[in-house]
Please model this.
Amino acid sequence: MKLRLDKLLLPDFIDTNSKKIIEFDGSYWHGLVGKGNKNRDIERDEIYKKNGYLIYRVSENDYKTKKETVIEECLNFLKK
Model:
């Protein structure tokens, strides 16, 4: 889903009713290896927060190594 706040953003998952966003951070694009851009993530988080959104970030490595735990954490985040 596209979200237009200060600029057009494309969160991985968004619940506009509860104003919650889940971002899945791949190792390559989010700065752990390769062409990552941590500044872009920081800027996006600031825009989300300024507009009243809560953000939950999931790293690719966490998802790969403890998938069930991560899914449970995401569901708990959405239920709060």
User: Anything to note?
Assistant: Helices lie at 38-50, 60-65, 67-79. The mean pLDDT is 87.
